[in-house]
Amino acid sequence: MLEGTILACATAPGVSARGVLRLSGPAAIPSLRSLAVNPVVLDGCPGFGSVALALELDGARLDAWVTVYRAPRSYTREDVVEVHLPSSLPLMGMLARALVIRDGVRWAGPGEFTLRAFRNGRIDLAQAEAVAQVISATEEAELRAARRGLSGELGAVVRAVADRLTGTLALMEACIDFADEDIPEFSGGRLSGEVGEIVAAVDRLKRSTSLRLAGEGSFHCVLAGLPNAGKSSLLNALLGRREALVSELAGTTRDPVRGTTREGTLSVTWVDLAGGYPRPGERLVSGLDGRMNPETRAAVERLTSLELEHADGVLWLVDAAGEYPESIEAFESFEAAVKLLVFNKVDLLDAPARASLAGRYPAALLTSALDGTGLDELRAAVGKCTAAASRQGSLAGEPARFLVSSHQEAALQLSREALDRALDVLDSGAGLELAAADLRDALRSLEDLIGEVTPDDVLDRVFAGFCVGK
């Protein structure tokens, strides 16, 4: 994915005075030089500089303003060029087509500029995720918290905890290697105390973070329910675009898929979750796809749980054309401050069946993602729920210092769980080898948060939600 030179439009669609095309990669400057009437002016650009450049496109002359960022003094640490033009869609399209037919130039994928910045060591993964959080922030408090992550402050705090954990792990490994030596620093009590202090540090970090900062004028609404209730189709219908993958196969949705719409003065973030059943005695749901390996299943459950915990409201979707007593029972047992029962796929019912369903469940909403039935009523019902929603941050009303993603929140939780296991092993005297393994798991989770050991599939999920020009 990171090969060649990438191109994207860096400005939003619409009418404006200026539009910007952005390139990054080894052919960024040569590809533009090949179109220039006066290419020599590019030679005078230093590590950072701007020049007026005349371009020839289909026999016509086009005057542009070009800003050059030479590697490594750029966002991606590659040669980056930004071409400023009048914001005419046909004009920008002509230049874009002329550029992509050059050898080595292609359209960028979602978030690929930021992915290159991460891969090239310009930013860590916490900063990369903060880029998306800054873009999607709906309140000033969210923006401030996201900018702290973008500045590297979150990564610095995580590294400080990871460094201390590394030191404790080294001490424990020394205890294993020199078990016959009578060294005071190697006592079990000393090790338990060190791990306990790290647990306290992780807890402080967790308390300073939040998936979102609720504020007036915003509402976080998740779409939950059993598999194949039509959650992904309904999300796409609400957004007016294809955001979530739709399939008849159960378990298609694994990671949360989200999108934001403006409902009057309210900004609503809709989140499509993996289908599942509530566990007995718990408010959280678990993924159902029996083909998932245990590790993937646990990750899906964890991400789903985190989204539900931070939701202002829950829409519980039921397949109106299927057997739904089990789903109704699940809805009734599901605990949430604000929840609405939604019968989806009512386009598959005839008029008498719809009337019967409405009579049996008068408080429920009847919708169809296919033909748009009931979508206006659903939007209105969500708007009325805002007053009942809990408007709290991460610390019972106290604003969080850092805004984090589901991936980051899950990494912190995994690290905390591994530390708890290590403490249990030390307290029970089960063996330092087992405790050391748990500490390595905790360290790996912290490193995953800042991208030092993050697998490619996790990176794909992180950057998939970015817009193309970022």
Structure commentary:
- Helix content is 43%, strand content 19%.
- The protein is built from 16 helices and 16 strands.
- The chain has a 6-stranded mixed β-sheet.
- Helix 11 links the parallel strand 13 and strand 14.
CATH superfamily of the largest domain: P-loop containing nucleotide triphosphate hydrolases
Q: Looking across the biggest beta sheet, what order are the strands in? A: 3-4-5-2-1-6
Runs in which pLDDT lies below 50 for 5 or more consecutive residues are 281-288, 390-397
Assigned CATH class of the largest domain:
Alpha Beta
Structural class, by secondary structure, is: alpha/beta
Largest β sheet strand count, sense and barrel closure? 6 strands, mixed
List the keywords.
Gyrase A, domain 2; six-stranded mixed sheet; Four Helix Bundle (Hemerythrin (Met), subunit A); alpha/beta; Rossmann fold; single chain; 470 residues; flat
Topology:
Layout: E1 5-9, E2 19-24, H1 28-33, H2 40-43, E3 48-57, E4 60-69, E5 80-85, H3 89-100, E6 105-107, H4 112-119, H5 125-136, H6 140-150, H7 153-177, H8 188-207, E7 209-210, E8 218-225, H9 231-239, E9 257-263, E10 266-272, E11 276-278, E12 285-287, H10 294-309, E13 313-319, H11 325-333, E14 339-344, H12 351-360, E15 365-366, H13 375-385, E16 402-403, H14 406-428, H15 432-450, H16 456-464
Helix pairs in contact: 5-6, 7-8, 7-15, 8-14, 10-14, 14-15
